[in-house]
Amino acid sequence: MDAFFDGGLTLPTLILLALALGLALGFEFVNGFHDTANAVATVIYTHSLRPMVAVVWSGFWNFLGVLTSSGAVAFGIVALLPVELIVNVGSAAGFAMVFALLVSAILWNLGTWYFGLPASSSHTLIGSILGVGLMNSYMAADRAFGEGVNWGKVQDTAMALLVSPVVGFVCAGLLLLLAKVLIKKPELYRDPPQDKAPPLWIRGLLVLTCTGVSFAHGSNDGQKGMGLIMLILIGIVPATYALDLSVRQETLNAIAVDARAAAGVFERMAEGASRPAPEDASAALSQYLRSGKADPVTFAALASKSAAVASVLEGVAGISDIAPDSRRALRSDLYLVSESIGKLNGAGRFAAADKPKILPLRDKVKTLTTFIPTWVKAAVAIALGLGTMIGWKRIVVTVGEKIGKAHLTYGQGASAELVAMTTIAAADIYGLPVSTTHVLSSGVAGTMAANHSGLQMDTLRNLLLAWVLTLPVCVFLGAALFSGGLYVVLNVLGLQ
Questions:
Q1: Which residues cross the membrane (predicted)?
Q2: For residue 354, what is the DSSP state?
């Protein structure tokens, strides 16, 4: 933490840093009481746990989920952002981007929570990211509207967000039907008696599923805030956070060897195009990542950047051997090289014989750049856990009483939560952000349909309206706040 106060930051930058970190933690706090209410809905509604015990229990397991998360989702979210804003996140545009993302996401989450609508924090954040990317391309005179948005990653993420509610609806309904065949316990499928706790074995089952959903929610949703905090730290305190200072010498030397080997392959693929200067190479790779159109200059730029990475890392004992001012530039080079390799490989631009000389570089680079300090995980975990303990009641009533025409039974709640925790855990493994809200709400609806309990169409219509509006509203909010924030940062605070 001493890096924040090493004298290298101006007062306006320190203020912006504090505000940005506060907003990022505020986003996770709101996420806690907005999304985690889904996890405690069943145990509270069925009187398996008292409300305060349930939210504290859920908050604790959200906390553990964040602490043990892999970070894959965090950097998957970051990959949705325009490449030039990621590379230059410490600029005025980078600050405006971060504030636009966080403020728009918090506003929409608070609005939907106020009306008791289980909307998706994942959709909210991704819509804001799209808005920032579209406005950034609109304000740039040298590119087409929409260029710079990582549409491939957006497509993968959107597919996960669209498919997961269907999975929740179908699988939870099927699981309930299977349970009725295998578990001949009538009390599992009756309406919960008012103000009376269920039998001990049912209570244990529901607490277990609540625990699983809470842990899975923390491990997936908590990473969104972590990714944004890392983006802030990389831009403002690059000497400490641009690269993982704990990476060992043998790893750094292995990256240098792979970079030399890859540079030779890229030189051949450049078809005689000369290596550009460092600035021109960065511009060429940024242009490729925006447009997806590769030419010999793209490969010449990759050869130049790969060789530059090798020159910096050859013989160093650790990142501390690299001058602090050079670490942000090295991270930018590593990011451009690894992302370009991934995009070119996905487009089938590498021959099978060349892949063993190129792909190891991309994989090793991630060990140096995709890291999250323990204190960041702990701060996000605390914010998410505390948020879980506040404001849960509005969402719990919607999930427990307003989706189906009948009251939620023990079996329905357990089925929906088992499917939710499994789906979220699978998405976490693959680095995909999914919506706890969508999966669980859809799961409850699926069990109501399977049980022939009927669905409250007014509630479903409101839920669908909130889900459908989340993306366009947040795109608009993100775009408007980015343009307004950029004006303030440039003209009021005087940052460049």
A1: 60-81, 93-115, 158-179, 200-219, 225-243, 464-490
A2: T
Residues 303, 275: contact at Cβ < 8 Å? Answer: yes
Q: Give per-residue pLDDT as tens, 8-66.
A: 567 777 887 888 899 889 888 887 776 666 777 778 777 788 888 888 888 888 888 88
CB 104 within 8 A of CB 474: yes
Q: Kindly tell me the sign of the dihedral angle through the C-alpha atoms of 16, 18, 24, 26.
A: negative
CB-based contact 44:396 (threshold 8 Å): yes
- Sorted by sequence, the CB contacts under 8 Å of residue 392 that are 6+ apart come out as 33, 36, 37, 40, 44, 51, 55
Instruction: Please say whether the dihedral angle defined by the alpha carbons of residues 402, 205, 71 and 223, taken in this order, is positive or negative.
Output: positive
Structural domain count of the chain: 2
The CA–CA distances, whole Å, from 309 to 112, 213, 305, 313, 322 equal: 47, 42, 6, 6, 12
Q: Which residue has the tokens 């005689």?
A: 272
| Tokens 């160093």 belong to residue | 316
Contact in structure between 284 and 333 (CB atoms under 8 Å): no
Radius of gyration of the chain (CA): 24
Q: Angle at which helices 436-450 and 151-182 pack, to 10 degrees?
A: 40
Say if 379 falls within a structural domain: yes
**What is the rounded CA–CA span in Å between residue 312 and residue 151?**
32
All residues at 6 or more sequence positions from 456 whose CB lies less than 8 Å from its CB, including other chains:
402, 403, 404, 405
Task: Please state, as a whole number, how many other Cβ atoms lie within 10 Å of the Cβ of residue 122.
Answer: 29
The dihedral of CA 89, 92, 97, 103: what is its sign?
Answer: positive
Q: Are 53 and 25 within one domain?
A: yes
Claim to verify: residue 210 and residue 92 sit in the same structural domain: yes
Residue 23 lies in a domain: yes
DSSP element (H, E) containing 116: none
Pair (210, 254) in one structural domain: no
- Provide the whole-model pTM: 0.78
Per residue in 359-379, pLDDT (tens digit) is 999 989 888 888 888 898 889
Tally DSSP H helices, then E strands, for the chain: 20, 0
